[in-house]
Amino acid sequence: MGKTIKDVARNAGVSISTVSRVFNNTAFVDEPTRQKVLLSAKELRYSPNQAARSLTKSETRTIGLILPGVFGEYFSEVLRGMDMVAANDDFDIIISSSKNVRAKFEKSIRAMAGRVDGLVVMSPLVIGPELRDLIPADIPVVLLNSPEQHPSFDTVNINNAEGAFVAVHHLIRLGHRRIAIIKGLENSYDARQRYEGYRTAMETHGLGTMMRVAAGAYTIPSGRTAAAELLASGERPTALFVSNDAMAVGAMEAIAEQGLSVPRDIAVVGFDDIPMSQYAKPPLTTIRVDLHLFGETAMKRIVAAVRDKQKHRTERMMVGFELIVRQSCGS
Amino acid sequence: MGKTIKDVARNAGVSISTVSRVFNNTAFVDEPTRQKVLLSAKELRYSPNQAARSLTKSETRTIGLILPGVFGEYFSEVLRGMDMVAANDDFDIIISSSKNVRAKFEKSIRAMAGRVDGLVVMSPLVIGPELRDLIPADIPVVLLNSPEQHPSFDTVNINNAEGAFVAVHHLIRLGHRRIAIIKGLENSYDARQRYEGYRTAMETHGLGTMMRVAAGAYTIPSGRTAAAELLASGERPTALFVSNDAMAVGAMEAIAEQGLSVPRDIAVVGFDDIPMSQYAKPPLTTIRVDLHLFGETAMKRIVAAVRDKQKHRTERMMVGFELIVRQSCGS
DNA sequence: TCTTATAATGAAAACGTTTTCATCGCCTAA
DNA sequence: TTAGGCGATGAAAACGTTTTCATTATAAGA
């Protein structure tokens, strides 16, 4: 047990109300008394119990984050953006990683009740309306990377479909026809959107029959495997749209292992522009998503909602993208 | 205001004690009653207020993390290790990034009181004994990357000095004499240790007079600047020991910009083995620190301490390293 | 001098839980 | 039958704060 406000009060010879007032300077208290209290607190190494504090004030100055994971450059960047604005507005962050597991996701959400003023949820899974019942109704919530048509929460999204479209369009303009995709997992919303962008681009250019698809899990090794698979079977594509940079790096490895060259034999375009991409060999052409901005936007929104005591405002926000042309596409 | 246990109790026509018992299944309760309660809770979308819960149980199932930052591959890896074991043992994580700012550091620590069962602190600064007064005395604490001689806490450290020694020794064995170092910031404990390792290696081989030093801030650009500085003045070194990989990547860029080649003109060895390093051009020889294990070890220790209700046990742990020879050293 | 406002403080209620203690049936063993 | 045990429940205290309300003492205005 740590020292409590009572100990400090007794030690200073005042009431607990006075101690509280000193710590929150919420009312007049005589300078000598004030000093006594401060001294007493320092002596006892007292700091206020935040759990008790949240209970009475029903305010925690904490934002809950529910993410599918916390590692890798993707999350790292997003986190950085979030951390920046949270720190700036004096909020703490509590993180729970749901690992794409439904049960864990549910548990994480429950664990947040009463400990946070707002929630940012990046739902790994494409969750139906039952998600609504899980999410607490009494605090603001921002959803990341989840279907825009979600009826009751603020959302911040990446313009995945359009980004993918632009990436593929770029390859087509360079003269490619046989363009394959390495897509992400089926239950990930943004992976599906990137696939949609690819499909739309191919079809609007009458290349629907040229489509070739392999799937990975957004990791380097899975990209390598998927690319190997693509190279091994059927007619070799001349270009590859890979739905995230990590997989693209893996894919380029696989291509090199086959004795082929990027971009001469196969052009590659990725998605995300993680820091590693500009150091890849060859440097990776990709769609840059400003992940830092993404996190920043989400956190700003939730902090504002908390401050204004708004509940769900169902605002739709979208962060943009930019085609970064490097050498892997051969242009 | 969310729904409370009282609402559920009233709704179900039972006392709050019964509801509590159902949720914690901590005592017998009739099956029909149980169902009534569960139903009532679901109807009201109730989940227990964790703040109140921690207050009575004085247990939070949460570990506090105080880190200098949360971004970049370094922290990402460490976090991953921590997250893994925390999730496994059913602990949540609350993160506060202190940004190397003393005041923020202090505030972060205060903000943890009563909200966490244990604390993992990676002190960015070399903090003297006054650190002791800041850190709460009533919960277990693990210190990361801080002086081993610290008298009152568990510590988990990276064997920085020896790692640096091995790196430099490797260069010496390859025949290099004029070996410069790009070191980190002065107030970082591990940066200082890495420098010590460099110095020891040089001196024990009678190369004390060959030492050349530049300093960076553990970022890519700062590594580039430091290297440029080293190349511009005096007799050019034939090898570079760079105290972290991010700076090494920057340094290799600077070298390439001068029209020089790694490793032909200048050999480079880094430290950390971040994922990017194997994709650098040329692939970077470096000291691999198993950051994942580092985080894992720290979290395991703190979780165990919490479970066993131990306070500070002043256990010293060290995670090892491994020399990863790639092409940048030319061997 | 007598209100009356105000600065300074304390007592006590409230926040939403868990948990101890008490109560009340009911069943079983004697 | 009755004593004892136990299953099922409720009442109330406790956790460490903040905050409302009440109480003093003091200063200012009449």
Outline:
The structure is a homodimer of 331-residue chains. Helix content of chain A is 44%, strand content 18%.
Key terms:
homodimer; 434 Repressor (Amino-terminal Domain); Rossmann fold; 3 domains; 12 helices
Describe this structure in words.
Two copies of one chain form a homodimer. Chain A has 331 residues and is an alpha/beta fold. Chain A folds into three domains: 44 residues, Orthogonal Bundle (434 Repressor (Amino-terminal Domain)); 124 residues, Response regulator (Rossmann fold); 130 residues, Response regulator (Rossmann fold, 3-Layer(aba) Sandwich). Helix content of chain A is 44%, strand content 18%. In chain A, the strands form two sheets. Chain A has a six-stranded parallel β-sheet with strand order 2-1-3-4-5-11. In chain A, strands 7-6-8-9-10-12 form a six-stranded mixed β-sheet, with helices on both faces. In chain A, strand 6, helix 9 and strand 7 form a beta-alpha-beta unit. The radius of gyration of chain A is 26 Å and the shape is elongated. The termini of chain A are far apart. The model of chain A has no long low-confidence stretch (mean pLDDT 90). Strand 2 of chain A pairs antiparallel with strand 2 of chain B. Chain A binds a DNA duplex (30 and 30 nucleotides) through helix 2 and helix 4.
Indicate the structural class of chain A. alpha/beta
Q: What is the number of strand segments of chain A?
A: 12
* Unreliable parts of chain A: none
Regarding quaternary structure, what we see is: homodimer
The helix count of chain A comes to 12
CATH topology of the largest domain in chain A: Rossmann fold
